[in-house]
Amino acid sequence: MKIGSGGQVASNPYSASSPFAPSEANSSQRIVFHAGAYPSAGTCGRCHVAIHDNWQSSLHRLSASDAWYLKTKDLLAFEEGAPAVRLCAGCHAPVSLMTGEVGLYSSEAASIREGITCSFCHTLSAVNGGNAKYVSNPGGIRPYPQGDYLAESGIQPAAHLVMLDPAQHRADMLKPFYRTSQFCQSCHELTLNNVKLQSTFSEWAASSYAQKGVTCQGCHFTPGAGPTTEVGRLVEHYPDTRSGILRHSLGGGSVTIGTRDNRSELKDALKLSARVERGRLLVTVRNVLAGHSVPTGVSDLRELWVEVTGQDVNGRKVFHSGHLDAAEGIQPGSTVFHMVLGDESGRPLVRHDIWRARSVLSDTRIPADGQRVVTYPLPTTVRHLHVRLLWRDAPSEFQAIVVQGATRPAAVLTLADWQHESP
Q: What span, in angstroms and rounded, lies between the C-alpha atoms of 62 and 55?
């Protein structure tokens, strides 16, 4: 397996000198830190109550404990060896990676399985590309009054406490580049075996959103779907006495384990329209509010598809596409907007075993500012048409083979529907 950042392929990652390989993540000292270097999110939440509560419902919070991630990580450890899971941990469990709790075995300590936490994001000193190519430097964290920070962590305590010098704390924790899209690039861009598997940052960079200066934070850290100029307004459901509090539930991503915001924002991001013309059904799906492709991220898992049902004058089904079969799989030949990865033999990957990927077999996702138009020839007996735009977090094969009942089956969500009655 080869890894790369921003398309640049690295050689012999397992023989690299970094203690974090094959992840391209690194620490400011190029060493593993003591566990106390990163205070828990609960420590931050003692003062930042609204932000902490908001973060608790986020996918960032669940990135290292979600059953789908753990099952996939164990599969990687089984096939490639336990150290290989550091590749996943660079983004899913960065504190575990930085403190050496992952890699020897496939599971990190539960005590620091907080996912992408406050003290990790707010102590990054540099982001140099995808594949978790960041530099983590928790040295700016200063002792907290009545906190659980340990002086024995190896970081020299500063001469003042946070509450005695809040301006210094703000400077430590709010670097200007945290408001740039590049800050998100390291964990939202992934290349393995010279195959671009996740390209959210690149998709944004090629969109009108980037040209207009709308950053990732301009959509994902503000209430509602799409960009807003009110970046500094309060978290809607978590009022705070201070101004400039950004939403930390982020939105988007999973509708199975995410918040209700994810569902509403996904619906708002896409628009469905259709028309009947000369015996054909033309369905258009437009990406109207996402500054990247839909789906994005784990695009080999996310399923966005069109379901069409045609009935005759007596209500009998005479045409269908996009229906689920007995095994909950999408009917072959249906219109599905997603990415299909292939192994070295050109066979589709269905287990999210992305380390086996050697090619992209197809990519039918809907790009930012873009649309897809699909045509269906209709039987002459069709009188009533019902079209639905549907979403599911993962295919039935992945759930049956990898997840194996560890969680409830991924829900099918209706994003939009359209109906038509012919005379």
A: 10
Is 113 in a helix, a strand, or coil?
Answer: coil
Which residue, among 212, 179, 182, 185, has the nearest Cα to 198 in the 3D structure?
185
Evaluate whether 256 touches 331 at the Cβ level (below 8 Å).
Answer: no
Would you list the domain boundaries of the chain? Answer: 3-220, 260-421
Mean pLDDT of 41-45: 84
Supply the pTM of this predicted model: 0.87
Structure tokens at 255: 């509708």
Residues 392, 57: Cα–Cα separation, whole Å: 20
Report whether 323 contacts 387 (CB < 8 A): no
Pull the structure tokens for residue 257.
Answer: 């384990």
pLDDT, tens only, 314-354: 999 999 999 999 999 999 999 999 999 999 999 999 999 99
Cβ proximity of 399 and 253 under 8 Å: no
| Burial label, 329 (beta-carbon count in 10 A; 0-12, 13-18, 19+) | middle
Cβ atoms 344, 353 nearer than 8 A: no
φ and ψ at residue 280, rounded to 5 degrees = -125, 150
**Distance from C-alpha of 391 to C-alpha of 50, rounded to nearest angstrom:** 31
Q: How far apart are CA 57 and CA 253, in angstroms?
A: 13
Whole-number Å distance between alpha carbons of 406 and 67: 7
